Amino acid sequence: MFYTSYAGSTGDRGPVQRFHSDVQNEIYCMLGRRPRNDGSLQRAEPALGPDPDVLACRSLLVLYSVDYLSDSQCALEWSVFRERMQRRLWRTGEPADALVGVLWRPDSLVLPRAVAETGQLLDDLGEGYQEPDVPGLQRDPSAWERYRKLVRRVAERLTRAARTPLPAMSSAESGTVEPYFGPAQPRRTRRGQPPSQAPRPLARHLVVALLAGTRSEMERLRGSVDTYAETAQEWRPFRPQSDEPAAGIAGRAAYACGAERLTFVTLDVTDADPLSEVEASAVVVVLVDPWMTGHPSFPVHWDRLTRSGARVAAVVTVLPRLDEESRQSADRLREALARTPARQLGASHHEAGSPDSLTHAMAAVMADVFADAREEDPLPDRAEEPPLENTAERIVRRERERAGWLRHRGNWPPLVTGTPRESWGGG
Length: 427
What we know:
- The protein contains 14 helices and 11 strands.
- It is an alpha/beta fold.
- The termini are far apart.
- A 6-stranded mixed beta sheet has the order 10-9-8-6-7-11, covered by helices on one side.
- It has helices spanning 13-31, 66-69, 72-92, 113-116, 134-139, 144-162, 171-174, 215-218, 246-256, 298-308, 324-328, 330-338, 355-375, 391-405, and strands at 2-5, 39-41, 59-65, 99-105, 120-122, 205-211, 261-266, 283-288, 312-318, 348-352, 423-424.
């Protein structure tokens, strides 16, 4: 039924076996102990190609870590399964969320965009939990209920995913699949052809699209509306921890990370195309209040975003940890937002529970978008040479970049409430 893929180099064979067995037993409880419900675990011995089970399983459980992204075997298994998902989409026109990812060891982990946008990612170990990873959750006796909840969520996602049949793949076909990540992947170009390049900004122009409600709108959706005002730009989700609007926090972080132009757009039902005046070279970040998923206009806004053609780089969901009502409704709000996933926009997804986490989310977006624009420019006559650093080295460097870009390089321009589409700051 499912296959568990993980990086053996982490030395976690024991915790992984336990997690796999716990998920398997939960599936047995849900569907019965039948051969068709059996899962398989990646073998400890090195292999020359993907495990045969990866070529025919109905769902894939991936335990992400830094080592996973730099492991050639893991990269091949992941890429082969993604190819099977793509083939179903091509043949039937129906997407398949048959890949379920868990942040097994998230320390220093930065998922490539192709990975973050594929399948379903479970990245929450429970509100207020301090351990950094799933093995820590297993070791902590006081976290038993949290661990069981994670196991149940994984089993439920795998069970739902397995209802969608995927085309099987032969060993010969799997040999033609190119890994999406792994150690020092060369550029995929033909001799004499320049590498294909995504649209890149001519300048660091960032557009923050606010998908939040006013006080009057939110009174019909939730009990506490103290953080809302007359406009979305005055939304202060982190009260009483911080009285600064979410737009102001995002803007300050963007300026700190080198944004040269900053534009705010408020998504409202009066504008049929809210991003029509945004330059094609601009990078868009959507700042979302998950409580808006209960508003009738939410699916309309999301549909307009997907059809706008704007370069949406990230969706940042603001779910304040100190807001008791939001904390109690967190699972419901996340589930509601998952029905309109960020991958529909070709964007990465972040969740911010505090001013600091919103700042770091913006730093991550700036690092991923604008650093990639510089790094992907090929050197003259050397387009086919492999990069000099491997994936693990790049991840460590990128984390240092993000931390470095957060250092203040001077006084920021003041951010004051303005009208939609008003750009602030130098440049």
